[in-house]
Amino acid sequence: MLARHLAVSVRGLQRAFERIVGVGPKWVLQRQRVHRAAELLAVDPTQDLAALAEGVGYYDQAHFTRDFVTATGTTPGAYARRCAASLAALGPGRVADGGGPVRTGRALGGAARGTAART
């Protein structure tokens, strides 16, 4: 454990993190999970939301949905529907890869189910 290695308490490490970064580690981890989920939904908006929630580190879909709405202002289902509409507008076989140019073919080597390399 990092706190033990640094010879500080866990709470002391959390306080130091918040003082230096400006937000707590819990907030950072929640945002990372939500952003990862949004990336995965953008690639495959048809995936099961409960499985997605588990895949990005949530124990239940309710907590995932609450954090997703807090971070994005929309539910995962509504976000997935917008992503599906955007993908449909791009045409068959074309995918958007998160802000870059549109590519042809499969995105992320089929990694839309939570198996992509961590970014």
TrEMBL record:
Organism, as annotated: Luteimicrobium album
Record's compositionally biased regions (Gly residues): 99-112
Gene3D superfamilies xref list: Homeodomain-like (1.10.10.60)
Residues in HTH araC/xylS-type domain copies: 1-82
Keywords of this entry: DNA-binding, Transcription, Transcription regulation
Name of the molecule in the record: HTH araC/xylS-type domain-containing protein
Ranges that cross the membrane: none
Region (Disordered): 99-119
